[in-house]
Amino acid sequence: MHSHPYYPLGLEIPDYQENENGLLNIVGTFSIGLAFSLCVILGLAIYRCPSMSYGDRLTILWFALSGILHCFFEGYFVTHHDRMGPAQDIFGQLWKEYAKSDSRYLVSDSFVVSIETITVFLWGPLCLYVAYLTTINHSLKHPLRVIICMAHLYGDTLYYATSLYDYYVNGISHSRPEVLYFWVYYFLMNFVWIVVPAYLLYNSICLISQAMKRLDSETGAKKRQ
């Protein structure tokens, strides 16, 4: 068994090796690549529709961000979950850093592997598709937003619930106790995928409701003629 900084203490992580690069190096490299990808996507969207509102631009960025993270970063986990311990590439080192807030990502936990697999193959591509639909102002953008936002809310709730169940019922902590790991990595970084989807869900439901009211009103007017 290798010594490591993860909780619960004594957790066995096969072939574990410490990260070769520092945190700023890893995060900086990842952030530059992610920012470049988002700038390209937003640039293409604005080129396609120069008059696009700032709200739509932010929505495209959100779904593009989610899609990229789901398909590539989380996709890496799905394909490498059984050999994360010795990983030294950028994604592998990032996952080992994040795993200080949730060690389940280093031991092929059945829940995280299952939910991440669904996220990678279903919600990731759908997020990118919705970013495209928003760019061309397609009528399907709101129904699909509702589906994705509900998926994010449900998945995040399960993610929190399973970890907290282990902590309060089974007495098992998967996160280090420091503020950075528990409150920033575990709580705050995931809570973003509750706050933003909740807002987008509310917005889309309101717009769909308004559209249905107009349709009902027009249909009723035609019947009375």
Helices and strands, with pairings:
Blueprint: H1 23-48, H2 54-80, H3 90-98, H4 110-135, H5 141-168, H6 179-224
Helix pairs in contact: 1-2, 1-3, 2-4, 4-5, 5-6
Roughly what fraction of the amino acids lie in strands? Answer: under 5%
Q: Give the count of structural domains.
A: 1
Rounded average pLDDT: 95
Helix content: over 70%
What is the chain-wise order of helices and strands?
Answer: HHHHHH
- Please tell me how large the radius of gyration is: 21 Å
Overall geometry: elongated
Number of distinct helices? 6
End-to-end separation: 80 Å
The count of β-strands is 0
Largest sheet: none
Low-confidence stretches: none
Structural class: mainly alpha
Describe the structure.
The protein starts with 22 loop residues before the first helix and ends with a helix. The protein has one domain (23-220). By secondary structure, it is mainly alpha-helical. It has helices spanning 23-48, 54-80, 90-98, 110-135, 141-168, 179-224. Helix 1 packs across helix 3 (90-98), helix 2 (54-80) packs antiparallel against helix 4 (110-135) and helix 5 (141-168) packs antiparallel against helix 6. This is EBP domain protein, putative. It is a multi-pass membrane protein. Residues 55-201 form the EXPERA domain. It is found in: Membrane.
